[in-house]
Design a protein that fits this description.
The protein contains 3 helices and no strands. The chain is mostly helical.
Length: 75
């Protein structure tokens, strides 16, 4: 069967500080140890529904909104 459209998964590589990796390894769920892709996915899903994180993200977006059009002409 031939698939069309965009892929559902986009792979990216990132560099993380060693201390952060050690902390995540210690605090992350045991069943996710060694599976960094799944750990990040689970963590981001939890953050997406956390009211405090959503509020903080909204505050940050509001603070940066004044610079949204910096350098762009409004023709």
């Amino acid at each position: 069967m031939k698939h069309s459209g965009k892929p559902n998964t986009i792979r990216r590589s990132v560099a993380l500080p060693g201390a952060l990796v050690e902390e995540l390894s210690a605090l992350g769920p045991a069943d996710l140890h060694g599976n960094w892709s799944r750990l990040v996915t689970v963590a981001m899903a939890a953050m997406a529904v956390d009211p405090a994180i959503r509020a903080e993200c909204a505050d940050i977006a509001k603070e940066f909104s004044a610079a949204d059009l910096d350098g762009l002409r409004n023709d």
